[in-house]
Amino acid sequence: MLLGEPPRTQYDLNFKVLGFSVRVHPFFWLVGLILGSRGGKEDAGLVILIWIASLFISILIHELGHTLMMRRFGVSSHIVLHMMGGLAIPDSYGFSTRSRDSRSSILISFAGPAAGFAFAGLIIMVIIGTGGEFTVGRKLLFYDYQLNPLQEWGKPLIILVDALLFINILWGLVNLLPVYPLDGGQIARTLMIDQDPGGGAIKSLWLSVFAGGGMAVYGASRKDFFLVIMFGMLAFQSYMAIQQMRGGGGFGRGFGGGGKPW
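RESULT FIELD:
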């Protein structure tokens, strides 16, 4: 969710996957530690390790969705995992010209969550294919599953499946909210600029302010301070971007830094 690539450190983890360079900032692991520690004191070490692994796998798959779609449009890119999630960053400024194609921009933005949904679908297929059950409840975003006959694998498997489904389904849906710079916010910006080239950017930012603020209020009602801080910060950033635009700054289709991050 950063707008620019975080600086390199001597503690970065660097590797390649599917031909893409991947850099993991050391603060990325801190988030996994924080989220895993929210699971309670029982088997805390195991829960933290599984959450860190789940977060790493899921966010990497999400960013690979973006980069693979960029490759589909002839753009090379690299991946950075950082404290606030991940970035898929074009390797050259040349993409800023091609980005004016709204269809390609929307497809690239949606490809990240879509990759996560596909991964979650694969997990659900494995659950059902091994004799388990997966059900969707009547309440919004509610689902349940049984791992039979793999239940004998015990608690680690349950924690792993819980974490992977939670990140790839629920976080994927949250990422499609029209809050900038989440994928949904970037899609909303592209659509609104197409409809109103002169005022669409500011309209998308106001939508981001209200949607982000609404999520922060929702988080407060559930005493989920992670949601409060994250969406409160994003709403504030969108509001400050509006003020910058009114003062002569830009927020159109152009990209700062090395290009548009996804």
